[in-house]
Design brief:
The complex is a heterodimer of chains A (385) and B (398). With 385 residues, chain A is of the alpha+beta class. Chain A contains 11 helices and 10 strands. In chain A, strands 1-4-5-8 form a 4-stranded mixed sheet, with helices on one face. In chain A, strands 2-3-7-6 form a 4-stranded antiparallel sheet, with no helix packed on it. In chain B, strand 6 and strand 7 form a beta hairpin. The chains are: A alpha+beta (385), B alpha+beta (398). The complex binds flavin-adenine dinucleotide. Flavin-adenine dinucleotide sits between chains B (124-128, 133-134, 158-160, 210-211, 376, 379-380, 383, 385-386, 389) and A (266, 268-269, 273, 276, 278-279, 335-336, 338-339, 342).
Chain lengths: 385, 398
């Protein structure tokens, strides 16, 4: 048992924390979020320079030899700073597909550019009518010669306005929601037939509806085996979910801290409101939610390499706990700030919004509770006569 | 005890339903819970009701009330909720109006009540200050007598929709030497056009502009604008807060909200089936509806007591706490129902006047702004912690 970070991980954390402190203060972030582009490519370049984009890749792939714990460390700091740049879509998702299933050619084409910060990706998996079911796909990829033709619409693709490449899930066979028949493609966003409708999200990021109209891709666009992509998608989404949990942990910690600090300074009835026991206990509950969220995030991250069932259960358990904890911490942070919590001017409301949206990403509490329950039921030994 | 409506009440429901259907502006149907309305939209229904004489049903008849029983008023709010109408704002009709007809002199009544009823005069509430929220009695805005004027200095904040307001009712300190902070406060009516008043917008987390800072610099107000007696303002302020609380349960609106949530959940899909059929989600709707029923019957009991002349007591705190929790839960479940489409933020686009089509289903893009906005309800109108303190003190006697 060892819950310590390696020297490299500690270094990543400290240098990233410093960078965010110096160049990602709340007012700067606001300016970026409200700017036309909504992000800072030059910040992305600095992340690359710090090695963040190569941290969770093996040395063979040209990375630093780290793993999911490195991504966790990065995302917790991102959560603390409400960083909007697309680490999960690019490094965890696209990087995950490439490292688990990319061909030598695909790695050659994309890995160095990804790790160097020159190529940004988005992961187009959700669909307008599919909710959180990764297999509920209406987007199709029909075989055409040696390649494929993709048609369909993807919903709320985070970071797509900034991306040059998309990882796209599509049906090459089977019926809607079948386990079989799901394939994964890598598509250049400027490919003929790809159009987007870009928009901001409520928590300060950017996303797109992405439309595919007879988009032709070659055989080399397929990642993994045709029609057998669902387990791969599930694995990568679990990794992304664990990273999102880490982000939530970072955001929760700050929201809690801000609230405690505010309760010390805000006086009503001649005393700091932090002296009211009902608020004290509420802040203690926030603290406990945060601590347990840390624990669950470690647990899930460390189990990402286990069997499919173990991994899924661990990630779903963490996402349920973090969904609930984030909700509690976010709502109470606003409540205890009173009217000030409702203002756009204060950072705390922005943490609340991000925490709320993390619950709706990669499956919310209900979704993961169902998945956990189903897996647990399947796991039960059949009772002996 | 009897839960049935009488023949008269059934006829009354028919009458008001027909009136609403005939007269409510069609283009404003379903917009009653929106915060981003124009001044004209906010006032449209109020003005129609003003002409009909129905804008302030709860007022005594001699001041322009309808003389309806509490059951009739309850039916009225249900029928309005059916079309989610944009009801008259509370600041005139439910707040300053009752203070004026209860405590002010004839001159003020004659001058101000008609404008409140007709919707011609928009009022806002100048209570809270940066340093005086829950502890309202610690307010610092001063009004100093100078000949036949008061000179007001200070800052109010969270002033809802002050950007549209014609008048503001302000709590000011008129006796800084009073023994207790509650003594020495006066209730003064101020024309928003008076020189020295500045309104600055506060943007809220949902992106809207609903509240403001209102600054007073040497604002000269005729002494005739004092309501009741000087230094007795706290009594009037408290009277108003009790009124504010009883309307805050919002049962009829929440019932309509549950229906709307069901409609959304029957359109939204989960694994190809309507979300409404999903056991987990439908149980949450049921829970909400059960809680709402408990609130509804608690409110009906309160109304019955009130109609026997036992004015809203500390029980109205129950209505505030439970009512707001339900409103918050309702918006939360709606946000949950729209899934991934809770994320797009399109309000800015709409404000620009651009007519971009929405992303996702048309009900989706307001779901999370509404959720974030409704967090306010457990903070304002006396926070839910303060309501619990009231129950602790006044009912449990602790
Ligand atoms: C959207 C919105 C609209 C508003 N509109 C108006 C308006 O039109 N006019 C107007 O005058 N005001 C308005 N208000 C102000 C509102 O009435 C105040 O926000 C409210 O009184 C709380 O005050 P505060 O914000 O200063 O919070 P604080 O009083 O600082 O409270 C902070 C936290 O401490 C808690 N707390 C405080 N005292 C105690 C205690 N004794 N025991 C336990 N907990 C306690 C509170 O419950 C809260 O959780 C509005 C507020 C909002 C958010």
């Amino acid at each position: 048992m060892d819950f310590n970070f390696t020297e490299e991980q500690t270094m990543i954390r400290d240098s990233l924390a410093r960078l965010i402190r110096e160049q990602y203060d709340f007012d700067t972030r606001r300016g970026v979020v409200e700017s036309d582009s909504g992000w800072r490519p030059e910040m992305w370049a600095q992340f690359a320079e710090l090695g963040l984009l190569m941290a969770p890749f093996s040395e063979d792939d040209g990375g630093l030899g780290g793993d999911a714990v490195d991504a966790m460390v990065v995302m917790e700091e991102f959560g603390k700073g409400l960083v909007v740049e697309p680490y999960i879509p690019t490094v965890v998702c696209a990087g995950g597909f490439l490292k688990h299933a990319g061909t030598a050619g695909q790695k050659e084409e994309h890995m160095a550019a990804l790790m160097g910060g020159e190529r940004v990706f988005a992961f187009a998996y959700a669909e307008p009518r599919g909710r959180y079911n990764l297999a509920d796909l209406e987007t199709t990829a029909k075989k055409d010669g040696s390649g494929y033709v993709i048609n369909g619409q993807k919903a709320v693709v985070i970071g797509a306005p900034w991306a040059s490449h998309l990882i796209v899930t599509a049906r090459t066979g089977g019926d809607r929601r079948d386990e079989n028949g799901v394939s994964v493609f890598i598509v250049a966003k400027d490919a003929e037939g790809v159009t987007t409708r870009d928009y901001p999200t409520i928590d300060g990021r950017r996303a797109s509806e992405v439309y595919f109209e007879n988009v032709s891709v070659g055989a080399d666009a397929l990642i993994g085996d045709e029609g057998a992509g669902l387990p791969l998608v599930e694995r990568v989404v679990d990794e992304a979910t664990a990273a999102a949990c880490a982000e939530a942990v970072g955001a929760m910690g700050v929201a809690h801290q801000m609230t405690v600090e505010y309760s010390r300074q805000r006086k009503q009835f001649g005393t700091p409101i932090g002296k009211f026991q009902v608020l004290q206990h509420r802040m203690v509950d926030m603290f406990m939610e945060h601590e347990q969220s840390i624990s669950m995030t470690y647990m899930a991250t460390l189990k990402l390499g286990e069997s499919d069932v173990e991994r899924k259960k661990a990630v779903s358990a963490a996402k349920v706990r973090i969904g609930q904890g984030g909700r509690f911490v976010g709502q109470e942070a606003i409540q205890i700030h009173g009217g000030m919590g409702m203002t756009d001017e204060l950072a705390v409301g922005h943490y609340f919004k991000r925490l709320t949206m993390i619950d709706s990403e990669f499956g919310n509490v209900d979704h993961h509770m169902k998945r956990y329950t189903a897996l647990s039921a399947a796991d039960m030994p059949v009772a002996a006569e | 005890m009897n839960l049935e409506f009488s023949q008269d009440e059934i006829a009354f429901r028919k009458e008001v339903r027909a009136f609403i259907e005939e007269n409510y502006p069609k283009e404003l149907i379903g917009m009653g819970s929106r915060e981003d309305l124009t001044r004209e939209q906010f006032l449209a229904w109020h003005k129609i009701l003003g002409e009909k004489g129905w804008s302030a049903p709860a007022w005594p008849e001699k001041y322009g009330g309808t003389g309806w029983t509490s059951t009739q008023r309850y039916i009225w709010s249900e029928e309005n909720a059916r079309l989610d109408t944009i009801m008259p704002l509370p600041f005139g009709v439910s707040m300053v109006g009752p203070v004026i007809y209860t405590f002010a002199n004839e001159e003020i009544k004659e001058r101000h009540l008609p404008g409140i009823l007709s919707g011609d005069v928009w009022w806002c509430q100048g209570y809270s200050e940066p340093g005086a929220g829950s502890d309202l009695a610690s307010l610092k805005t001063t009004a100093v007598r100078d000949g036949d004027h008061y000179v007001i200095n200070g800052q109010k904040t969270w002033t809802t929709l002050a950007q549209f307001a014609d008048w503001i009712f302000v709590l000011c300190r008129t006796d800084p030497d009073a023994e207790k902070p509650q003594e020495g406060i006066s209730f003064i009516l101020v024309d928003m056009k008076t020189p020295g008043i500045e309104v600055r917008p506060i943007r809220t987390i949902d992106g809207g502009h609903e509240v403001n800072e209102t600054w007073f610099t040497d604002v000269r107000v005729p002494v005739e604008n004092l309501v009741g007696e000087e230094n007795k303002g706290w009594t009037y302020a408290k009277f108003l807060l009790a009124h504010e609380r009883s309307g805050i349960a919002g049962v009829a609106r929440s019932k309509r909200g549950v229906e709307r949530l069901r409609e959304i959940a029957s359109t939204e899909l989960i694994d190809g089936e309507p979300l409404l059929g999903d056991r987990d989600f439908s149980r949450k709707i049921s829970q909400l509806e059960i809680d709402l029923t408990a609130l509804e019957f608690t409110e009906l009991r309160t109304l019955a007591r009130e109609s026997e002349g036992k004015g809203p007591g500390p029980e109205s705190s129950i209505l505030k706490v439970k009512g707001t929790e339900i409103q918050q839960r309702l918006t939360e479940l709606t946000m949950e129902a729209v899934g991934n489409y809770a994320q797009p933020y399109l309000r800015g686009a709409a404000d620009d006047g651009s007519n971009e089509y929405p992303v996702g289903p048309d009900y989706a893009h307001v779901a999370s702004p509404n959720y974030f906005n409704m967090r306010k309800t457990s903070i304002y109108g006396g926070s839910n912690e303060i309501q619990r303190n009231i129950i602790t003190k006044m009912i449990l006697g602790l």
